[in-house]
Amino acid sequence: MFDPASLPRAATNLSEPKASTPPASPLHSPERPTDHIFVNNVRFLSMAAVVALHCVGVLPPLCGINGSSRLIYALGQPFKFGTIGFFLISGFLMGEGLSRRSSSAYLTRRLKRVFAPWLVWFALYAALSLAHHVVTGRLSMDSLDGFRMIPGLVRIDLFSTAYWFVPNLMIAVSVLLLCRRFLYDPRLGCVLLGLSLFYGVNAYSQWIPIQNHSEAFLGFAFYLWLGAWTAKHFAAFMAWIARIPLLALLVLAVLTGLAAFGEAEVLTDRGAMNTLRISNQIYSVLAVLAIFKARGGLWPRALNVRASTFGIYLTHSVVLALLINLSKPIPLQRVMGNAGIPAEAYAIVLLPGSFIATYLGSLAITQLLLRYPYLCWMVGGSKLGGAPKRTRAEEVRTPGQSFSFWRFPLPTHPASHLGLPTDSAGHGD
User: Fold this and answer.
1) Model confidence at 211: pLDDT above 80
2) Is the CB of residue 80 less than 8 Å from the CB of residue 280?
3) 109 burial via Cβ count (<10 Å: 0-12, 13-18, 19+)
4) Taking the model in full, what pTM does it have?
């Protein structure tokens, strides 16, 4: 409810002189106060981590190594902060969005800008997957049994790929909106934290027969709530985080990351990479806090993070699947074996290449769709406005404030490095 007392005194009493405008915080864009630099930092690094993690997941069949090997756990663990990072910034932006919109308006906007594009890309991925099963003879459409297999295959596509995230997010958002009256009540946060911890323990006990975090509905709702609570108490949070040295956060993140790696070896095959392992939950929060401490942008200068992140999320599973199938005729594994190169070394070399190809291919598709007003909605853009404009936070690098190691812009069409045409290669707020 609007409260006149909340206005600055200069606005309610014109007889008093106006107070000087405080300098803009380096965490905000001067032209868009709600576009926080740290949100874009978390967006960029979390999305890169998610793509890298899924590239790690395809290494075992490509390189002929055990998917439960220590190498796979070691390669994947550093990237395991991405999912919780996205829930935290989604909650933060939700907290800010609810200060300007009603619950129904906010949910409607999320359905249009997030769920509708997700539905298109998941349907495309599921259709390609079913077609692949038919072509390879693993699915026959000549009998009723074949059609009965389709729901099970679609369920596997949902929970074994990145596409589980949006349904899980929308359920969590809906629950928090239903509890909006108590949204900032710490007791609600404690209940949701209990759910997250429950799923962490359930990875061992199997009270609920699931091992994968993708099936843990409301398992991430606490981090959505925590982000919203932080937006509500942002000044107090800033004062608290300012007292914690960056070095301390980095050391703690490394220690908890090692603990999460150790926990992965204790758990069973599927549960080993469960994001809701308690040690990994702590590691993820510490990693995001460390990213928050960066006062400047950590993304490449040419990248519009706000416009491209959701599109990369939606497209990278399709791109990665296509790249895997295109690479199958190339006998690289046999060549490496004949050359005496161990499969583990091959996996370490292949990971950067697969990440770069997948990320740039997904980015190329996203940039292409954002150019067209009637197609940009497929990657979270606005039909009328196209891609969100680059904000000052994304255009300006203030000397002395950026930890970015990028010193040169990326090419306009990254897919050209892959020898792919830019028209076929291959989160918003």
Assistant:
1) no
2) yes
3) middle
4) 0.82
